[in-house]
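Step 1: inspect the first sequence and its tokens.
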Amino acid sequence: MIPDYQTLMRPVLKCSENGEVRIGHVVETLADEFELTQEEREELLPSGKQATFANRVHWAKTYLAKAGLVEPTRRGHFVITQRGKDALIATSDTIDNNYLKQFDEFKTFQGLSNDNKGAITQEQEAAKTTPDEELRLAYKKINTALQTDILSKVRTVTPAFFEELIVELLLAMGYGGAVEDAGRALGRTGDNGIDGVIDQDPLGVDQIYIQAKRYAQGNNVGAGDIRDFFGALNLKKAQKGIFITTSAFSSSAIQTANDLGSRIVLIDGVELAKLMLRYNIGCRNEDVLYLKKIDEDFFEQ
């Protein structure tokens, strides 16, 4: 299990007790000390740009620095201070956010004043997530709520609007490539269980057929629907089909699709909502937040 950043504070401090250390070496040393598996060492943050464990080690070092227990020396390196050495001597003390709060530098970093000691709640003191992890968790909560809302909206639109929506989504995802007017909903003209089609080439030789079921929650797509769609694809001599529903697929429907091969891709309501958010279909960007960090190269000049 990957330790949280507060648990890492004392180990990070201890790594520096004998002199200057490189943060990358500290990450490797502590990964061995905590006996992390290769999978745990390589686990990435949702951004996919940094390992979770390395990120937490960096945050532990940052908090220690803000409290004056360590200080940077040169790029990627730091040393322990006398305050840090004193903290290590008190082996009974737990070094965490609550411990660091005794130092004025740390309170300033946290936006506190000497007469506002209650500004950090007990819940915040006990938090196990780093600030950027908290931000991403909040982002995930917002998106989860939005997915629920957008799926509810989709279930209320007309069948024709739903079919057009699905075609627009698939085109936004890159299906149809650069073909002009590549996708179209068939609406009432649809036959043999086909609701839409996307041309993958200008002549329409390679086509993807779409089945769209606007079902209420709990009204799951069954194996019979999958077999009917498969039959429709055979009549069209089609090689590719996408079955989308606002509900879910029964286990027998999923098994049937698997048994018929990879020709039919299933997208349920949850996945549909995620895709709509990802490709801005039925939603829009309200605000953009940028996570920034120090440009070390700038200060090396």
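Step 2: inspect the second sequence and its tokens, then contrast the two.
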Amino acid sequence: MTDGFSVPVTHVSSRDNPLIKDLRKLSQDSTAYRKQGRVWLEGDHLCRAALLRGLKPAVAVFSESFWPLAPTEWAQAAIKNIVIPDALLPEISGLESPARMGFVMDLPVAAGLQGDAASVILDRVQDAGNVGSILRSAAAFGFDQVIALKGTAALWSPKVLRAGMGAHFALRLVEGVEADALAALTVPIVVTSSHHGDFLHQQKLPMPCAWAMGHEGQGVGDELMARAALKVRIDQPGGEESLNVAAAAAICLYASSLRI
């Protein structure tokens, strides 16, 4: 059945349908994407961001109330379309107010670490909102690669995807990395700390480089700190002890972008 479109359309009404079960896991389990090899993009913003990057979803899911109103480019975007009752939306949503549509995308093939890329290293950054925000800053300020060391929040988890607002599709994402693998980097590692190094605004920053952002409470670990070519701290004339890691990343990455 195509419902007037060239893309096949299937109407699903059972919450026990295998696709609904898979979407439920993808929306509620932060690491389900690793087992399924797919990610769930909920809502028009993420879906539009994926399409703008030339990605083709495997499945498009629409609510019954939205399907007649769906723009043609969304209805034709995927390999197949699924239409479900509005009552099933909470089953597959991670939002308080479920979106009326979403895409299932095949997980990109795991990328190897690129040694000469302008990068951001995440050292056990555990809050999904912080990770997503850092990905947005990386994409905005010309950093091509994000390297997540083991202990960092899952990069393709639903919460990180929502916080990233589409930045995932502009970046080379490498996760589950051991610190020893950073020896492959040919760009200098720059570490920010609340207590070590000279002030950021007084430094001549290398570019490209790899900025290291650490755990929300503990900061950058000793092993990564030992690999740093440069250590800097952000001047805080207001007297606060430290900045949120996502805020610190935005400041540092912007400062580097001025050197391009």
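Step 3: confirm your contrast with the notes below.
Residues 148 and 175 are 4 Å apart (CA to CA). The first strand starts at residue 9 and ends at 11.
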